[in-house]
Write a structure and sequence with these properties.
By secondary structure, this protein is mainly α. The chain has helices at 3-14, 33-44, 71-98, 118-121, 128-132, 143-161; strands at 51-54, 65-66, 69-70, 103-106.
């Protein structure tokens, strides 16, 4: 039994899901944009999606490139947001069809307070990822913390780019 299957079993047997709730385990490799996009296509096939929790975290001390970016940035930030973004249409459809809010959660961590602010304040506007994707200047010991810091402005931007459909009342979407 995989970790995911074990977690699924614990959720289902805990009794904390809705009586008709459904919990599934799907394959997803956050180091591969192909896998993330395939996951997004699976999400599109769902007749209902009430919530998604997007979370990923690797903590490595060596430089490794995945999908053209340093691995921590690819997995902890870019793929995590890609999963959340790909789920938005299905979340909205569910919310509208059932007149209940849907929920999208991108997890962060309190360790976002530890990286130096220079990582985000020194690069020119719009060049944060390009600047961070430089092996010669990367502080890999701080990279995991930095990836969790990047979640904060990412969530803020996502909220601006994909706002609730209505601000009056709770339906169809709200924060």
């Amino acid at each position: 039994m995989t970790k995911a299957e074990k977690a699924c079993k614990e959720i289902v047997t805990s009794g904390k899901t809705l009586p008709r709730g459904k919990v599934e385990v799907w394959q997803l490799d956050m180091s591969s944009y192909y896998s993330v996009l395939a996951f997004g296509h699976l999400v599109e096939t769902l007749s209902r999606l009430d919530a998604i929790i997007a979370n990923a975290g690797i903590d490595v001390t060596h430089w490794d490139m995945l999908e053209g970016m340093e691995s921590t940035l690819t997995i902890n930030v870019i793929s995590t947001f890609l999963v959340a973004i790909l789920a938005i249409p299905t979340l909205r459809e569910t919310s509208e069809a059932h007149q209940k809010p849907s929920h999208s959660v991108i997890t962060g961590s309190v360790i976002h307070i530890f990286p130096k602010d220079q990582y985000l304040s020194q690069p020119p506007v719009g060049q944060v990822f390009k600047t961070l994707n430089n092996e010669s200047t990367a502080a890999m010991g701080d990279r995991y913390n930095l990836s969790k810091l990047l979640v904060l402005p990412g969530v803020r931007q996502l909220a601006k780019k994909a706002p609730p459909r209505t601000r009056e009342g709770p339906y169809p979407c709200h924060r």
